[in-house]
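The methods section describes the discrete structure representation at length, but only in general terms. Since the whole study asks how a given chain folds, the encoding of that fold should be made plain. An entry of this sort, consisting of the sequence and the corresponding backbone structure tokens, reads as follows:

. . .
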Amino acid sequence: MTENLLHIPAQFYRCAGPNCGVLKGGSDRWWVMWSSFGDYQVPVMHLAPWDEKLAVEQGAMHVCGEGCAQKLQSQFMDNVLANRSRKTSG
């Protein structure tokens, strides 16, 4: 009787890509991204293949594929340069 029950995932993941928001299904093309300060105290962007343990970490961004990962990387780079410009001009 239990084999007829639907499996409902414990956690739902939505893509963090700009203007995306697709819900994660069974695809293995998903990635996890996060940022931190590296050993030299500069912002660092991390990208890893989908891993459930990484996905639940604070600050983790869930990414549905290469296109959204590239857009998030571009935003990260723009933010780093904009913050660098503000520090030098202000």
Summary: The chain has one domain: 9-89. Residues 9-89 form one domain. The helical segments are 52-55, 66-89.
